[in-house]
């Protein structure tokens, strides 16, 4: 395969093959991410082109390697050396990208910049080194990306595998929303090199290998994020605060609250620079001042709109379940290619904002001390006319493809001592696969399928957690 990509996507144009999909899904990408199965597949397959493997020439001296692993790595060519921004997941993927970069420059690496501390951006640094030891830049808070107590690492690891579909078969895999599926993760972090220069809170302006650059702190997806601005080239390297998908304001693998307001403000700060090109942490760069600046402005507005709508709903006394179904992207933004909900979703963002601002309690006294699951299941069965009647309702929901209701009823039936728990398990597996087939949000789809496989193969306890 030719590893050079000679053209870039503009922000307003559709990805090749996606135009027809937008026509089919008008009004769909507004909250819930369920469409007809063939449409979901077409959308995900079209999104694949956002991480087609190759090196993109962003400007005369900036090159971005896309698709060599899940994230991007970039090379800035200077007078007597190069600067690497982000280093992929491990030495194997980073070595492949470094070799591809050598088509454009064989100068030594003078510096490495980490935009944040997620593993897919920092694990391959050693692969870019020669005889020289480069300076390695990161923020003062570098390492705080996850922000979740390590006590819950065991369940986070399980949920991570599900979200990214790491154990799905080739037939089940599509992609990860902003990254390809099936990446080689066996050498995770083995090439990581710790930072040697700290970027202060006020940012840093410096010259490396004759290249003027600015490092600006930009909390968003992580608290330790920064972006790189090249004032002469007018190129902005955004890290994971921007990519071509509605942002993952909450990750279903489990994360601490990502400050949504900070995220919106950080992207607005990028847009104010009016870059001629923006390089995302994942997916293809966007070139052209109008296209790049508009994309960043729209991104910031979309995040802020979801935040503002959620806060208004909270102050109107609405709970997270209601708001997750009510909050929508503004009409003029909802069909923009870089805001389709391939990775993050509006409903997940709404729930995260609610919990981040108020905690778990929705203010309704009914939910202050809800019934224990077994007790609720028993009362649901009594209301339905007995366990058999509730079971028939569960089967009917599956038969009519009311998959979410089938899941919820299965979760009641499983608690009943006189119920057919194996049947409930089978119904839940079938309903999960039914939902997955209709999902164009990659993490949702991967999670549904992964959980279904775990249930079917007996990897989960009877509690199904």
From TrEMBL:
Top EC class, one word: hydrolase
EC number of the protein: 3.1.2.6
Biological process terms in GO annotation: dodecyl sulfate metabolic process
Name listed for the protein in its UniProt record: Hydroxyacylglutathione hydrolase
Gene that encodes the chain: gloB_2
Keyword presence, Hydrolase: yes
Superkingdom, taxonomy of origin: Bacteria
GO molecular function: hydroxyacylglutathione hydrolase activity; linear primary-alkylsulfatase activity; protein dimerization activity
UniProt region (Disordered), positions on chain: 169-193
One Pfam family of this chain: Lactamase_B
CDD domains named among the record's database cross-references: arylsulfatase_Sdsa1-like_MBL-fold
Keyword terms: Hydrolase
InterPro entries assigned: Alkyl/aryl-sulf_dimr_sf (IPR038536), Alkyl_sulf_dimr (IPR029228), Bact_Alkyl/Aryl-Sulfatase (IPR052195), Bds1/SdsA1_MBL-fold (IPR044097), Metallo-B-lactamas (IPR001279), RibonucZ/Hydroxyglut_hydro (IPR036866)
Metallo-beta-lactamase domain boundaries: 70-282
């Amino acid at each position: 395969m030719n590893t050079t990509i000679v053209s870039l996507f503009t922000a307003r144009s559709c990805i090749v093959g996606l135009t027809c999909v937008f026509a089919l899904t008008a009004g769909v990408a507004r909250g819930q991410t369920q469409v007809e199965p063939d449409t979901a597949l077409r959308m995900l397959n079209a999104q694949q082109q956002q991480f087609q493997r190759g090196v993109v020439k962003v400007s005369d001296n900036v090159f971005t390697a896309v698709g060599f692993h899940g994230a991007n790595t970039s090379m800035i060519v200077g007078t007597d050396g190069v600067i690497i921004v982000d280093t992929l997941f491990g030495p194997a993927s980073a070595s492949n990208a470094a070799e591809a970069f050598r088509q454009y420059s064989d100068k030594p690496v003078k510096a490495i910049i980490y935009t944040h501390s997620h593993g897919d951006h920092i694990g391959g640094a050693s692969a870019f080194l020669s005889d020289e030891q480069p300076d390695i830049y990161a923020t003062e808070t570098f390492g705080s990306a996850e922000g979740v107590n390590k006590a819950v690492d065991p369940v986070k690891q399980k949920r991570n595998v599900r979200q990214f579909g790491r154990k799905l078969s080739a037939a089940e895999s599509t992609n990860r929303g902003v990254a390809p599926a099936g990446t080689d993760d066996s050498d995770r972090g083995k090439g990581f090199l710790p930072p040697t220069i700290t970027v202060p809170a006020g940012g840093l302006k410096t010259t490396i290998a004759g290249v003027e650059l600015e490092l600006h702190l930009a909390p968003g997806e992580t608290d330790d994020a920064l972006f790189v601005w090249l004032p002469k080239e007018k190129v902005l390297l955004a890290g994971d605060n921007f990519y071509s998908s509605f942002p993952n304001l909450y990750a279903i693998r489990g994360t601490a609250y990502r400050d949504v307001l900070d995220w919106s403000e950080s992207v607005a700060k990028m847009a104010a620079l009016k870059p001629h090109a923006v390089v995302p942490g994942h997916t293809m760069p966007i070139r052209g001042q109008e296209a790049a600046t508009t994309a960043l402005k729209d991104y910031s507005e979309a995040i802020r709109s979801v935040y503002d709508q959620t806060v208004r709903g909270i102050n109107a006394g609405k709970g997270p379940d209601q708001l997750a179904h009510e909050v929508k992207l503004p009409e003029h933004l909802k069909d923009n290619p870089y805001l389709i909900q391939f990775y993050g979703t509006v409903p997940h963002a709404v729930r995260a904002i609610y919990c981040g601002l108020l905690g778990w309690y929705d203010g309704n006294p009914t939910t202050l001390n809800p019934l224990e699951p077994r007790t609720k299941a028993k009362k649901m069965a009594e209301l339905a006319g007995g366990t058999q009647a509730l079971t028939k309702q569960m089967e009917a929901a599956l038969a009519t493809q009311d998959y979410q209701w089938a899941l919820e009823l299965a979760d009641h039936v499983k608690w009943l001592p006189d119920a057919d728990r194996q049947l409930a398990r089978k119904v839940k597996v079938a309903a999960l696969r039914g939902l997955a087939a209709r999902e164009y949000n990659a993490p949702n789809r991967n999670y549904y399928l992964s959980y279904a496989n775990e249930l079917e193969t007996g990897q989960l306890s009877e509690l199904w957690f």
